[in-house]
């Protein structure tokens, strides 16, 4: 059996926020907007005006915690108490993931409005769960993707460039994570579809990501066609990679290392895509990539101000025990490692983390340029 979960409609255009009511009114007439403090502050006026003009009653609840099972239950109770007939999620990955689960539990349609281009959460039929301390607590597959995704290009372009870099990091990882599974599961058409989609996203990023990232941080930046393509890759194509499934398992090493890193408190102010990027560099070492290939990847990540050392992830403790802790924390789905043509043992992974860190240190010292995450950490 093959399942395909995708939104009924996806828009990535400038000025969508001011026209949001035109698209949302067919889905409901009494909305609960769930958003983070910053997200609501920059969207509330335009979004509410458009919804009210379209005849939609609005309730607003702020979300500022972790996407936990308990928080999902609490916001589901609020939605039921208010008797709304649609959920509108506004913000970054955690609020979008929480709101998708709330909508499912309340039996309501959901519209997602991402305010940062940092993940594919606006599209995916998945909620990433955490505990109250910010540690990864598993994944909750959802029955469907959001009914509607409204990605306002103007809004996304206003986000701090760090979020754009994190989204690029999370997206470029997709092809490398999925493609290595073909050696053990080449007969899966769903996997081949995901790999092909991830390759398209990677092609776009290889053409435009670095230039778009550097331009997006400049004063007065106006999003262009390249910016739209990059954000399409982050939200749409990365989301589509996971939309087609046939029940087969695959090993997602970089994302597994992200989950392990969340158990180290010092990394909690690092973004999802930042942790995943270092995870990919580690995966490449584990695969036995050549020094030239490793340096090319590390250089690209460094250009995007993504972490290539443990220190840049906030981990300043001794490398050896830190690498051991991260390696021991990697959990792959049962049977997933069998799809790979390289071994994933705790010892090999520990050595790969140390080697990736050493490569990153050498490259960082050679460039004499601190990354954005270093600058933020030292501020």
UniProtKB/TrEMBL annotation:
Molecular function terms from GO: glycerol dehydrogenase (NAD+) activity
Keywords associated with the record: Metal-binding, Oxidoreductase
InterPro entries xref list: ADH_Fe/GldA, ADH_Fe_CS, Glycerol_DH
Domain annotation Alcohol dehydrogenase iron-type/glycerol dehydrogenase GldA: ranges: 7-153
Claim: Transmembrane helix is one of the keywords in the record: no
Family that this chain belongs to: Belongs to the iron-containing alcohol dehydrogenase family.
Name this protein carries in UniProt: Glycerol dehydrogenase
Organism (species): Paenibacillus hunanensis
Taxon lineage: Bacteria, Bacillati, Bacillota, Bacilli, Bacillales
């Amino acid at each position: 059996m093959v399942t395909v979960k995708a939104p009924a409609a996806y828009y990535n255009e400038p000025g969508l926020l001011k026209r949001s009511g035109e698209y949302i009114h067919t889905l409901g007439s009494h909305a609960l907007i769930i958003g983070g403090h910053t997200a609501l502050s920059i969207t509330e006026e335009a979004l509410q005006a458009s919804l009210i003009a379209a005849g939609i009653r609005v309730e607003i609840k702020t979300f500022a915690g972790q996407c936990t099972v308990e928080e999902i239950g609490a916001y589901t109770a609020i939605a039921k108490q208010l008797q709304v007939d649609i959920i509108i999620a506004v913000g970054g990955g955690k609020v979008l993931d929480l709101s998708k689960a709330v909508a499912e539990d309340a039996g309501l349609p959901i519209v997602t409005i991402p305010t940062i281009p940092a993940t594919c959460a606006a599209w995916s039929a998945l909620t990433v769960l955490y505990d109250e301390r910010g540690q990864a607590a598993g994944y909750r597959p959802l029955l469907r993707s959001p009914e509607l995704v409204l990605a306002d290009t103007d809004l996304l372009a206003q986000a701090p460039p760090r979020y754009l870099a994190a989204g690029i990091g999370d997206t470029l990882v997709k092809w490398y994570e999925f493609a290595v599974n073909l050696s053990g599961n080449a007969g899966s058409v769903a996997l081949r579809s995901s790999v092909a989609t991830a390759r398209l996203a990677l092609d776009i990023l290889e053409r435009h990501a670095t230039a778009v990232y550097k331009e997006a941080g400049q004063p007065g930046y106006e999003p262009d066609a390249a910016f739209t393509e990059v954000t399409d890759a982050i939200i749409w194509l990365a989301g589509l990679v996971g939309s087609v499934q046939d029940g087969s398992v695959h090993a997602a090493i970089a994302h597994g290392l992200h989950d392990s890193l969340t158990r180290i408190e010092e990394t909690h102010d690092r973004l999802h895509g930042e942790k995943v990027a270092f995870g990919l560099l580690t995966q490449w070492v584990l695969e036995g990539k050549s020094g030239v290939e490793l340096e090319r990847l590390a250089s690209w990540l460094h250009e995007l101000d993504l972490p290539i050392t443990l220190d840049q992830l906030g981990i300043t403790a001794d490398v050896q025990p830190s690498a051991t802790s991260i390696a021991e924390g990697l959990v792959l789905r049962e049977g997933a490692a069998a799809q790979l043509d390289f071994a994933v043992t705790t010892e090999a992974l520990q050595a790969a983390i140390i080697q990736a860190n050493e490569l990153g240190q050498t490259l960082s010292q050679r460039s004499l340029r601190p990354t954005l995450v270093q600058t933020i950490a030292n501020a």
